[in-house]
Amino acid sequence: MTPVRPRVVDEPPSGTVLGPGGPENRVAALLLAVLLVTGGLTGLVNLALDGVVRDGVVRTTYGVTMAACLLAAVPLVVRRRVGVWQTFGLVLLGDLVYVVVALCIEDPVRYATPLVLLFPSVVAAWFLVPWMLAVHMAVTPVAVVVAMQHSYDGVGGLAVQAAISAGMLDLVAVGVSLLRRREQRLLAATEALSQHDPLTGLANRRYLVEQVPRLWRQARREGQRVAALVIDLDHFKLVNDRHGHAAGDAVLQAVAGVLADTVRPSDVLARLGGEELVVLGLVGDPGEAAHLAERLRLAVCAARSAHGHAVTASIGVALTRPGDGEDAGGALWRLVDRADAAMYAAKQGGRDRVATFAPPPPPSPRRAPAAELLNPPTVPCPRLPDVSRTESG
């Protein structure tokens, strides 16, 4: 696993438009409903005008088609949610409605120009995935030819009209689609930058907070504990002072890479700031959390920047069992504070080691320490030249 990088989305997911149930989805559903209602009501007005709609069965077919437009809007208004397949069906329905309207009125050139297809074209370009848009673009010239075939005496005039009208409609659809994809990429990049640290590519504080409710729900559901591991790089200030901030940045990037490779896929690894990082994950018992922390400590020991600079890490571990109705946000920072206290105990114990937070026992003449140190490594990790254990960091 490598550090998390901003993810760019080129197209909406195949099952939804703009995310199910989200505010954008509701807007899309209501927009489509408005277009259907507007088209249906406009079409019904034509029934009241003399000389627009042909008489007989054709007139009934026209009225039924307009009523179908109005009925198609009802589920969108009620559910306020629309899927990509439903949108695709509505776009094709719009193409079919145009053909029916053109065949039912007396003068299609005057009352049913191909410009009517602009609405389904824009909807298809904005909301549909590329292959669905391609289907609509292929259907557009066919719809224009079928709708306008009785309005021209010769094949040449019909072909020119179809080529110009369908070509312009498809050109508009392509332009809107490109604009939409561009907007999606920019939005995805902006979201990624707002949730990830630009130097290391790891998640940032905001992303960590966003993931907490999910972790708390999962822990309650599976009967597990949430473990917080606070990782602080030892003597990191000396790297910046002796070798420059560029070297310090390179060390941070190297550490981020090995940590991302070491944590489990379900864990959340984030940079809180400076040289302090945190890992949130679900564990069954304290031993599992301590084992993960030790693996992370060894991973940091093995990390090297491109110029060979290295650091060690002091890691504090704290666990909690989420309760029903608990405020996950507040519980997160209480948990991180306990892990932070354990991390400082690890530093006071000599650095390059793991400490777990132990709740203080009831008051007694002799107070127990707030953190319990795990056994330090048997083989010391390599250190930077001339770095004293007594210095801060």
UniProtKB/TrEMBL annotation:
GO terms for biological process: cell adhesion involved in single-species biofilm formation; negative regulation of bacterial-type flagellum-dependent cell motility. GO terms for cellular component: plasma membrane. One of its GO terms (molecular function) is diguanylate cyclase activity. InterPro entries: Diguanylate_Cyclase, GGDEF_dom, Nucleotide_cyclase, Rev_trsase/Diguanyl_cyclase. CDD domains: GGDEF. Residues 224-359 form the GGDEF domain. Signal peptide: none annotated. Keywords: Membrane, Transmembrane, Transmembrane helix. Residues 350-393 are annotated as: Disordered. The chain crosses the membrane at residues 27-49, 61-78, 84-105, 117-138, 158-179. PANTHER family: DIGUANYLATE CYCLASE DGCM-RELATED, REGULATORY COMPONENTS OF SENSORY TRANSDUCTION SYSTEM. This is Diguanylate cyclase (GGDEF) domain-containing protein. It comes from Geodermatophilus amargosae.
